[in-house]
Amino acid sequence: MNPKPFKPSRLSFAHAEIQNLRIELTETLSLVKKLKSELTDRQESEALALELVSKTRLQLDAANKTIELLRSNATRETEAYNTLLFELEQSNARVKSLEGPR
Q1: How many Å apart are CA 47 and CA 15, to the nearest integer?
Q2: 8-state DSSP, 58
Q3: Could you list the residue ranges forming a coiled coil in this record (predicted)?
Q4: Chain centre distance of CA 92
Q5: For residue 65, what is the DSSP state?
């Protein structure tokens, strides 16, 4: 069997089809390049966000430790104040008892 020779119309159709495929390939490659760039940007953004989360957690931990320390100090200071107030009241009562009735 001998293959049929290409007719000019078949040849132009094949040439047009090849051109269309080249255009589609160029568009596809451009889209892939764009998507790859977007992926890289998103990965960089994610890395920055994770770094920010990590720093924020450290700040939160430090703030919580400061709150604990302040609460502990406030408790100790309140206890010291109450002790001094109690001693002062006892002292006043002793002074009154020593002074006797007026």
Answers
A1: 48
A2: H
A3: 18-73
A4: 59
A5: H
Strand ranges for the chain from DSSP E = none
47: which 2 tokens? Answer: 């890395």
7: left (phi over 0), alpha (psi -120 to 50) or beta: beta
**Amino acid letter, residue 101:** P
- The string of pLDDT tens digits covering residues 32-87 is 999 999 999 999 999 999 999 999 999 999 999 999 999 999 999 999 999 999 99
| Length in residues, the chain | 102
What's the CA gap between 77 and 71, in Å, rounded?
A: 10
Report the distance separating Cα 4 and Cα 96, nearest Å: 132
The whole-angstrom separation of Cα 19 and Cα 13 is 10
End-to-end CA distance of the chain: 143
